[in-house]
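re: ur question from yesterday

yeah so i grabbed the chain u mentioned. its 134 aa long if i counted rite. heres the sequnce exactly as i have it in my notes:
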Amino acid sequence: MDGLFELLPLLILLAIVGLWLKLSRAREMAVAEARRQCERHGLQLLDETVGLSGVRIRPVHGQRRLERCYSFEVSIDGNDREPGRLWMVGSHFTGLSLPTIEARMRDDHDGPATPPSTSNVIPLPPRDGQHRLH
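ran it thru and got these structure tokens back, copy pasting raw so excuse formatting
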């Protein structure tokens, strides 16, 4: 019985290290996805930093899965900082929120600036018949 109590701190330490490694890998995947999405939408990912900002349980194909939300900052023209977010379930990218580009474009003519759109969420198409998460 004493041997078990001596091993308990080591097991707890191993569990913490394993969780830290898993979360670090997930963050690396989120940074890569944020970089891809910024390139796709003509934005600049600032500071190459993406931080975990939330976790929630979502139903995916009848199973409850953990969905992580990562926050980061982007720039539209190099002179601003705007928030962005992306969501991932496991290693799968599930959602994206970027600043409304039309509302932030600089006015190159004397007319009024373009009004903001009603939503800044970019919908993702379903993959090969899979159901959408949101």
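noticed a couple things. Residues 2-122 form one domain. also The beta strands are 44-60, 63-75, 82-89, 92-97, 121-122.
anyway ttyl
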